[in-house]
Amino acid sequence: MARVVVDGTDIVVRLSWWEKLAARRRNVRVPVSALRRARIEPDWWRALRGRCGKGFWSPARLCVGTWRLPDGTEDFVAVRADGPVLCVELRHWAPFGRLAVSVPDPKEAVRVLRPLER
Q1: 10-14 and 3-7 beta bridge pairing
Q2: pTM of the entire structure?
Q3: Domain that holds residue 47
Q4: What domain count does the chain have?
Q5: What torsion, rounded to 10 degrees, do the Cα atoms 51, 52, 57, 60 define?
Q6: pLDDT digits (tens, 9 = 90+) for 1-59
Q7: Which terminus of the chain is more solvent-facing, meaning fewer CB atoms within 10 Å of its CB: N or C?
């Protein structure tokens, strides 16, 4: 399962080896300054928006990779269908519009990220 951590001036989504393989990428890094808002989405499917891009999608089970929105923005997702999802909304200049990640303790992740919101 992925983890979201703050590493210096970056928010890092640390993927497990199989998530890296499924997403076709390594860990995701975005600057802390790009953080707009962190919240918990109780329904995993509501964290997904747009259409599946690169990555792996198993209907009603798992989605790992990028999702494309109609305006060209991409979200990075590592979502499992078995619980709530940490949603990190990012500024327009960030590499992604949103990070949506199933993490072991979403409440703790939000507690860490909320003081960094600007």
Answers
A1: antiparallel
A2: 0.94
A3: 3-116
A4: 1
A5: -10
A6: 899 999 999 999 999 999 999 999 999 999 999 999 999 999 999 999 999 999 999 88
A7: C
